[in-house]
Amino acid sequence: MPDAQQGSVIYRPMQCADLKSVALIEASVSPVPWHYTVFEKCLLLNYIAWVAEDDAQIVGFGIISIAADEAHILNIAVSPKRQCQGIGSVLLEKLINIAKEAQAKRIFLEVRVSNINAQRLYERSGFVKLGERKGYYPAAEGKEDAWVFEMRL
Ligand SMILES: CC(C)(COP(=O)(O)OP(=O)(O)OC[C@H]1O[C@@H](n2cnc3c(N)ncnc32)[C@H](O)[C@@H]1OP(=O)(O)O)[C@@H](O)C(=O)NCCC(=O)NCCS
């Protein structure tokens, strides 16, 4: 899929040079953030990872893995100062289109039960709640349950 521009924001595949900025965004939005090395591994494993870039600054990212006919959105985040400007929706739409092009039949994702903003984004984009995974996420204290969302393509 070619790079795309919407307004001043460019959407393009993630590169090694982006990893520091990506990990900084993750650290600023997640209660238990992925470490830099996890993002590095995603690139090494050839997961599909895209960034949103504005004026040479990384402002968001999204990562999806696709195996056979199933896709899994592994992470998506937008820098706190740039949230609620439609960037997350565009990143999610890109990942969905990539899954469609790869002939995936279903996309899954997990989201913390407390993460209402992300759940709104997913529902608004056409995902439906499939079930619950008890204690799926590490939390500041103990564990947190996840909702599993699905989109049939
Ligand atoms: C979830 C996230 C990626 C959304 O990105 P975003 O760029 O802010 O999203 P958009 O501006 O495209 O908004 C899309 C929809 O998400 C929901 N949403 C996003 N941020 C919201 C907020 N602060 N309050 C309420 N709803 C919100 C809304 O439904 C919104 O649609 P609307 O504006 O028509 O109401 C972003 O909030 C984020 O990075 N959160 C922290 C990381 C995270 O939770 N990632 C998901 C892990 S499963």
Summarize this structure briefly:
By secondary structure, this protein is α+β, with helices and mostly antiparallel strands.
How would you explain this protein's 3D organization?
The chain has an 8-stranded mixed beta sheet, sandwiched between helices. The protein is globular, with a radius of gyration of 15 Å. It has 153 residues and is α+β, with helices and mostly antiparallel strands. The chain has a domain at 4-108: 3-Layer(aba) Sandwich (Aminopeptidase), CATH 3.40.630. It has helices spanning 19-29, 36-44, 87-101, 116-124, and strands at 4-6, 9-13, 48-54, 57-67, 70-78, 106-112, 128-138, 143-152. Residues 29, 76-78, 83-89, 111, 115, 117-118, 120-121, 124 line the site of coenzyme A.
Instruction: Find the structural class using helix and strand composition.
Output: alpha+beta
> What is the typical, i.e. mean, pLDDT?
95
Tertiary shape: globular
Main sheet makeup:
8 strands, mixed
Order of helices and strands: EEHHEEEHEHEE
**What's the quaternary structure here?**
single chain
Give the name of the CATH superfamily of the domain at 4-108. Gcn5-related N-acetyltransferase (GNAT)
Q: How many β-strand stretches?
A: 8
Q: Descriptors for this entry?
A:
153 residues; alpha+beta; Aminopeptidase; 8-stranded mixed sheet; 4 helices; 29% helix; globular; binds coenzyme A
Task: Give the topology.
Elements: E1 4-6, E2 9-13, H1 19-29, H2 36-44, E3 48-54, E4 57-67, E5 70-78, H3 87-101, E6 106-112, H4 116-124, E7 128-138, E8 143-152
Parallel strand pairs: 5-6
Antiparallel strand pairs: 1-2, 2-3, 3-4, 4-5, 6-8, 7-8
The structure holds coenzyme A.
Residues 29, 76-78, 83-89, 111, 115, 117-118, 120-121, 124 line the site of coenzyme A.
